[in-house]
Amino acid sequence: MPRLLVAALMILTLSVSAQEQPALRVEKQGSFFVGGRDIHSDTLSSTTTRAPNGTITVDQVYVHYQIPVGAAGHPITFIHGCCLTGKTWETTPDGRMGWDEYFVRKGRGVYVIDQASRGRSASNPALINRVRSGKAVAEQLPPVSSVSHEEAWTIFRFGPEYPKVFAGMQFPLDAQAEFWKQMVPDWIDALPTPNPTVPALSELARRLNGTVLVSHSQSGIYPFQTAVLSTKGIAGIVAIEPAACPKPSDDMRPFARMPILVLFGDYVAQSPRWAPRMQACREFAQAAGRAGGHVEVISLPDAGFHGNSHMLMQDRNSLRVADWLLGWIDREIEHR
Amino acid sequence: MPRLLVAALMILTLSVSAQEQPALRVEKQGSFFVGGRDIHSDTLSSTTTRAPNGTITVDQVYVHYQIPVGAAGHPITFIHGCCLTGKTWETTPDGRMGWDEYFVRKGRGVYVIDQASRGRSASNPALINRVRSGKAVAEQLPPVSSVSHEEAWTIFRFGPEYPKVFAGMQFPLDAQAEFWKQMVPDWIDALPTPNPTVPALSELARRLNGTVLVSHSQSGIYPFQTAVLSTKGIAGIVAIEPAACPKPSDDMRPFARMPILVLFGDYVAQSPRWAPRMQACREFAQAAGRAGGHVEVISLPDAGFHGNSHMLMQDRNSLRVADWLLGWIDREIEHR
């Protein structure tokens, strides 16, 4: 269909249904895996109903994607954080549109992953059955942990401690029951370093021939580790509230080859967990700058946004923050 | 926008790009959870980095949905089987369109779930940490098992035994490496009966005010158990290769209140696992019929489809089977 006609139809649609959301026009959507390796085990099961011996595939990473009609610019890869899955970027707990759809509506291809051993990306239960069947001792069990509502409250900066709330909080705490359902057990302490998600992201970036890696929290270091493996296919990095940035003493050359944004929400100074992390990211930015890189560390209040939690992609002003981020990507990655 | 104009635009779009797939027009998409309950534990973690005490939410069921522009008829709820997730219904291992998108393109609202304790629906690691920290013995570990490629080969009827292939097999075995990546550990033996997925499905059905529950394999019995809880919101049941049907001696009244299809693929007679299960479903159908119900048991070869595996939604002829199933739903559920 000629582009002009497409544009005319889109304008027509927009003008007729200005009040309601226009239909989303998807060129292509689907899912696939990157990474993964076969392993053999004799403790895949410890029940009588299933065979213990055999081959399974682990360390693969599930990827769901959606490409809009008329996509432009680099696609975005969203990488969730601790104890969460790709659901992070979908419908918010209070039922508003997630960044996964919003970025598609803004003309971007969007790829959402589940980290290795999380969500639709398989974990490996062999050690659990090894201990359960008496072939190994309890200490060898994989450390699979859940973060409680109470602990998450402080980590996600809903308030200084459970159940106190920071004044002006933008997270939709009325819908917190729906948010807690997003949390899943975390196998990360049972996995090697770098996390198998890292080489999988490298495979994805090369396959997409250019993508902006958008991490969150626990996954904050992954895109940097991916860039150390290879900068191929990484058009830029957006680290949202990263648990860690590269150390200033690290080799800065990979990070000098792409625009990088480190983005933090509000109340960081009041958080003994997050304040030193933001400071460490500023020191990384300075080191990268000295090596010829372009790393911006932005605190949302300095950009005019107030009240944002650690889960800023789900906060009440999430789509206004998304607009700001899209502007940064356009300016610093597409047109720099 | 007036319906006639929508129709005109759709015809225009279809005629201009007859060769390629037209754009998918989505009215609404997103995700949410049904079910779930809060539990307290002092072994959420067994590492020094995370607090062991607190509240987590378990037994919730993740639901992803997509509603096309101009949706008609009851929405479809897809429920995956053993050792798999909602990925079952998405892009096939060899990269073809999954039923999740195809049914939307055919005008149906589609809801895809991850069973409780699977995929994006949280499992409960408290017992693992209880044993790991020495507060419980190894026998108390949850039986979390993986099914190996070799065992799955026979269960999924790719052939009589690994790695033999049934003649005429429609499953895309060239892409089997991608298929194995879909498999995840199964917590089902650690869960109560009925599975927490069952009351969650009941909540979903009531919320949708009418949906066709489409199960597969392990989940085959769930929609029947849901109907026993309440028939409210269940417009019909399609059990694809169910691991079990209700017993003929069960109370048939819930099953007499909705159209039911039990669908099997090919090579069933050659499978010691599946042949008796299909026979048991036929006996259920007869019992339901005597109680005034309408239960059809269809073998795909009898409907003209040959070479289908247990994973028939991913077989090479999957979209032709989908067309047949859409016809059955139109005829038996919408217009009966």
Summarize the topology.
Two copies of one chain form a homodimer.
Chain A: H1 3-16, E1 24-41, E2 54-68, E3 76-79, H2 99-105, E4 110-114, H3 126-132, H4 149-155, H5 176-180, H6 197-208, E5 211-216, H7 222-229, E6 234-240, E7 259-264, H8 274-290, E8 294-299, H9 318-334
Parallel strand pairs in A: 3-4, 3-5, 5-6, 6-7, 7-8
Antiparallel strand pairs in A: 1-2, 2-4
Helix pairs in contact in A: 6-7
Based on CA inertia axes, which overall geometry of chain A fits?
A: globular
How many individual β-strands of chain A? 8
Output the structural class of chain A.
alpha/beta
Residue stretches of chain A low in confidence (pLDDT < 50, at least 5 long) are: 14-18
Helix and strand succession of chain A? HEEEHEHHHHEHEEHEH
Distance between the termini of chain A: 32 Å
Number of helical segments with 4 or more residues of chain A: 9
- Oligomeric form of this entry? homodimer
Mean pLDDT of chain A: 95
What is the CA-atom radius of gyration of chain A, in angstroms? 21 Å
Binned, the helix content of chain A reads 25-40%
Note the beta-strand portion of chain A: 15-25%
